[in-house]
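Worked example

This section walks through a single chain of length 469. The input is the sequence exactly as stored; nothing has been trimmed or padded.
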Amino acid sequence: MSIQLEKLEKMTPDSKIIGGVAAIMFGAYIAKNSYFKTEAGLSYVVQNQLTGALNVYKEPGFHFRVPFFSTVTPYRHVITISFGDAANHCLFNSPYPVKVRFADTYHGAIPCTFRFRLSQNDDEIRQMHKDFRGEDSLADKLLARNCKHVVVITATQYTGEEFFQGGLNEFKAKLVDQLKDGIYKTERKQVSTQKLDIAPVPSPLAEGAEIASTGRTPHRLQQQNQMVWKTVNVLDENGQPMRAETHLEQYGITVTQVTVGDPSPETLLEKLLIDKKKLVGARIRAVQEQDTAQAEAKTAQVVKNIERTKAVQDAQREKELAIINEQRQVEVAKQVAEKQKVESQKLKDLAVIDKLKELEIAQSNKEIYKANAEAAKYDAIAIRAKGEAEAAVLAAKYKALGANKEIYLAEVQRDVARLLYTNLSNFKVVMPTNYIGGGGEAGKLTTNLDVISGFAALGMMDQTIRKGK
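Given that input, the structure is written out below as tokens.
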């Protein structure tokens, strides 16, 4: 102990600083390796190298681990596998589509993308980690190989023509079903398939003969059977397809999405499809041309029948219109005569009414004139009586005034004087200050000199008056 103290005492200050920094860095390195961070969307398997224990963490946060003696392996919750579909963020992304062989020995390439969801069960995650040791190995050795195997197996259940002539949706459904629940157990059999491209197109004469003999129309495209070798499902007692055990089930991995891109056939199959497409198009066009010709002939016949029927109807309509026109003219003549008769009677009735009205007016005027005469008589009597009464009153008034003449005159003078004295204060008489008379004739100025002389004299008089004041 004393020796170590002596060594420490002998250490220089620089060596002490370097040692302290190294100790701090070593402590920080140990602290950094003592914990790890987990993120959402990932499962982490932590293996303790000392005890061999496997711990699973699925929630985000910070967790402790034994430094230098533990490994952390992340697994994505959702893993995408792509074959030739140029998908982004794929754990396994192959630039080449899956090559398949169909039941009729033709080849094809199918681009497809698969999405899987890993189990959230700790035991299944541990078992998956023990078997594959990482998500890259899991994607390559289990998921990608299983997807490719199922695509190849499913393609053998279709012929090349079936697949490229509308069987893509059914192929995708079977692909998803086998990935989820297991691959079908199959066997190779020769089965009958239906095709549309081998029906003959006979001539119209042959068509008529076949219709007469068989009762059916042969010029339509017909379904015909063809025997081919195909891989078919092995069914159980209940008629359900038997399945092999799926490799994904033991790890709890489920299929969430399957996308199939645009498949491409091999050159021979593509040429066959194009040739058959042309053949079917030619046959359909021939059938359409025959149908069009027959339809045009029927249409022409129908048009002739329509024109003939229309001509008959037009003639019948013209005949009916002539009869209707004659009946209308007779009816119009009857109505005109009836109208004239009614108008004549109406004029007679109006004349009688006018005479009766004139008689009534004359009688009314007579009564009115009689009443006016009586009224005038009584008015004259009333006026005469009124005049006599007013004359009597006036005579009595003047008689009374004559008896008191002096008193009446005095009252009149009194009233006149009162009015004069009452209004006298409102009168003002102003006499003119100066007056200029004419020269020769009275009241006229003869010359302009006289006018100017008069105004000058007035001015001098006005100044003399102001000075006097």
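What to look for: Residues 81 and 92 are 5 Å apart (CA to CA).
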